[in-house]
Design brief:
Layout (H helix, E strand, L loop, with lengths): L9 H12 L3 H14 L4 E7 L5 E6 L6 H6 L27 H7 L2 E7 L6 E7 L2 E8 L4 E7 L6 H6 L3 H18 L4 E6 L2 E6 L4 H9 L7 E7 L3 E8 L11 E5 L2 E3 L2 H10 L12 E7 L4 E2 L10 E2 L2 H18 L18 H5 L36 H5 L32 H6 L4 E3 L3 E6 L2 E6 H19 L4 E11 L2 H17 L2 E6 L2 E8 L7 H14 L8 H13 L9 H12 L14 E5 H7 L2
Parallel strand pairs: 1-7, 11-13
Antiparallel strand pairs: 1-2, 2-6, 3-4, 3-6, 4-5, 7-8, 9-10, 10-13, 11-12, 14-15, 16-17, 17-18, 18-22, 19-21, 20-21
Helix pairs in contact: 1-4, 2-6, 6-7, 8-9, 13-14, 13-16, 13-17, 15-16
Bound molecules: adenosine-5'-diphosphate and magnesium ion.
The site of magnesium ion (MG) has 5 residues, from helix 2.
GO molecular function: ATP binding; ATP hydrolysis activity; ATP-dependent DNA damage sensor activity; endonuclease activity; mismatched DNA binding
Protein name: DNA mismatch repair protein MutL
Family: Belongs to the DNA mismatch repair MutL/HexB family.
Length: 616
């Protein structure tokens, strides 16, 4: 048999390596920012266009490269950072594998401009798909500028695999946060599509956190600090009362490198034990310093995983230190680690003698009686009064003793064609009678027993289907505002809003301007009140930011879900009977009336047979 093994040509090898190092635009951002840090820059600017799909540029004022080094930097395994295997155990730089530039140059159009301090003139190199297409002297300032254009231009499968601009931007901002947090003494600027997203002056850790996450963050931070020979811990945890349901700010840095560690995360969780509400996640910015010899960063190509020699000791110390800080800032009620919570009966209760249960009956209670007049509930359904007569006909034939219709016609509804396929005719008949329980549930008798509808979830379902239809069919009507509404958003948030603009316009929003931290809105969807707009948009941006992008993401769906959630009538809102009925009827006109957009049950039915058993 003839020999069949060949050595792969360099450009193929580089493309394969690129598969590991460069998953998406954000990976390029990470590598370039880290190179700029390794080059001892004090000011780093990141410029991004179209979520990095068109351009990623990093401009630094670091040590720069000589002409020879500039050329060599694109070779695989070309690095100035280690010389021998021993150096691997004494790493003080971010990079060391010498793979990033070679990988990036294999899958993009790259331009490098660089100059060292003492060189008269700098160098410019252009590379496309690992081929140097141009090299010439160039007059530039000290430092390095790398521009990466048309990422994955020669790997269409990869390019098509990229997520929406929104999601890719989120990843880029995440990487930017990680590097900027680890190096507060370096000035960072980020621009996206021509506008400033971040402008972070050189500062200390606390200021950097606040500059990134907003001034409200300042009061939420509890300092954490401890130093032993083995480990130095420094940073902040977020007070438990500000913990989020979603995994918000969770950052570990080891020797100024962002790392992911489920094990250390567990240690923080353990320190917060008993202080967090169910389902809430602790927030933290923790900077660990350990001897470089006691860790191995070499276990993952993107270097976000790390192995510690003495994991258990680090776990214990981290947990104890955070617990101590939470206690010191009188957040944790007890500092006694070994306390048995089983005996924690509150003092007042232990002394009380048991009281026999009593039954209170309010004989004058009539669930169908008029509620006291409520002022101005804005019930965000369509408001045109088209067919009031046929709406009223729904009441025809109702027995008088069961219902008193509130005649106040301050709320008007359009009548609806109700499919009501779930209910037979005589049940529909029954569905003309509803009452509200605890301003939360709408109850109605049905043939088999009783229907209980969760008003907030039901309304979410109705709005969700309506919004989704509007976004996809693009036929929503909007109400013009007499005076345009001006809302301010942080620049990073504006990036998200801009990306959602088109879909939002399909729901009925009209944006007259989005720029310089301000959004001007001249029209809004008919189903929303002007006073709700700010909250709905703020929540939307928040939800988009927190979306886990890899979990079958659909932006339209997310948008409809988020808006439906903030627009839906809240639990605790009293509803007049027309509103209750309208809600129930609209619900049954939905495609999927029984589950909320967030997959919670919207309604339950209670069987009369079950009541029978209770009366035996
Ligand atoms: P690594 O960072 O692992 O060494 P890279 O491929 O990222 O590998 O970079 C290769 C080399 O190019 C670096 O070791 C460094 O000498 C040089 N280099 C890259 N970016 C810069 C920069 N912004 N400023 C100065 N030198 C740089
Ligand atoms: Mg590097």
């Amino acid at each position: 048999m003839t020999d069949i093994i060949q050595l792969l040509p360099d450009h193929v090898a580089n493309q394969i390596a690129a598969g590991e190092v460069v998953q998406r635009p954000a990976s390029v951002v990470k590598e370039l920012l880290e190179n700029a840090i390794d080059a001892q820059s004090t000011s780093i600017k990141l410029v991004v266009k179209d979520a990095g799909k068109t351009l990623i540029q990093v401009i630094d004022n670091g040590i720069g490269m000589s002409t020879t080094d500039a050329r060599l930097s694109f070779e695989r395994h070309a690095t100035s950072k280690i010389k021998s295997a021993d150096d691997l155990f004494n790493l003080h730089t971010k990079g060391f594998r010498g793979e990033a530039l070679a990988s990036i140059a294999a899958i993009a159009h790259v331009e490098l401009k660089t100059k060292t301090e003492d060189a008269e003139i700098g160098t410019k190199i252009t590379i496309e798909g690992s081929e140097v297409t141009q090299q010439e002297p160039e007059v530039v300032a000290k430092g390095t500028t790398i521009s990466v254009k048309n990422l994955f231009y020669n790997i269409p499968a990869r390019r098509n695999f990229l997520k929406s601009n929104n999601v890719e931007t989120r990843h880029i901002i995440d990487e930017f946060h990680r590097v900027a947090l680890a190096h507060p003494q370096v000035e960072f600027i980020m621009m996206h599509n021509g506008s400033d997203v971040f402008n972070l002056p050189a500062s200390n850790k606390r200021q950097r956190i606040v500059n990134i996450f907003g001034s409200k963050m300042n009061e939420k931070l509890v300092p954490v600090s401890e130093a032993t020979e083995m480990l130095k811990i420094d940073g902040f945890v977020i007070k438990p009362e500000y913990a989020k349901k979603s995994r918000g700010e969770q950052f570990f840095f080891v020797n100024d490198r962002f790392i992911k560690s489920a094990y250390l995360h567990h240690a923080v969780n353990a320190a917060f034990e008993g202080l967090l509400k169910d389902g809430a996640h602790p927030g933290y910015f923790l900077f660990l310093e350990v001897d470089t010899k006691s860790i191995d960063i070499n276990i993952h190509p993107t270097k976000t995983e790390i192995k510690f020699d003495d994991e258990h000791a680090i776990y214990a110390m981290l947990r104890a230190t955070i617990k101590h800080s939470l206690g010191q800032f009188s957040i944790a009620p007890v500092l006694d680690f070994e306390k048995d919570t089983g005996f924690d009966t509150p003092y007042e209760y232990s002394k009380k003698s048991p009281v026999a249960p009593t039954i209170d009956v309010d004989r004058s209670f009539n669930p169908f009686k008029n509620e006291p007049k409520q002022k101005n509930i804005i019930f965000p359904f369509k408001r045109e009064k088209k067919n009031a007569a046929s709406w009223e006909s729904l009441y025809a034939g109702l027995k008088d003793e069961t219902t008193v219709v509130d005649q106040d016609d301050s709320i008007e509804f359009e009548s609806e064609q109700v499919s009501g396929s779930l209910f037979e005719t005589d049940q529909e008949e029954n569905l003309r009678v509803t009452f509200q329980l605890q301003n939360k549930y709408i109850i109605s008798p049905i043939k088999s027993g009783m229907l209980v509808v969760h008003q907030h979830l039901a309304h979410q379902r109705i709005l969700y289907e309506e919004l989704l239809k509007n976004i996809t069919v693009q036929e929503a009507v909007s109400q013009q505002l007499l005076f345009p509404l001006q809302l301010s958003f942080s620049n990073p948030d504006l990036v998200f809003l801009e990306d959602l603009k088109e879909q939002l316009e399909h729901t009925g929003f009209v944006f007259s301007q989005i720029k310089n931290g301000c959004v001007e809105i001249s029209g809004i969807p008919v189903s929303i009140a002007e006073s709700q707009v700010e909250q709905v948009l703020t929540q939307l941006v928040k939800d988009v930011k927190e979306e886990v992008p890899d979990a079958g993401f659909s932006q339209n769906d997310l948008l409809a879900k988020s808006m439906a959630k903030s627009m839906a009538v809240k639990t605790g809102t009293p509803l007049k009977q027309e509103a209750q009925l309208h809600l129930v009827h609209q619900l049954f006109a939905c495609k999927e009336p029984s589950v909320s957009p967030g997959n919670r049950p919207v309604l339950v039915t209670l069987d009369a047979n079950d009541f029978d058993k209770k009366f035996m």
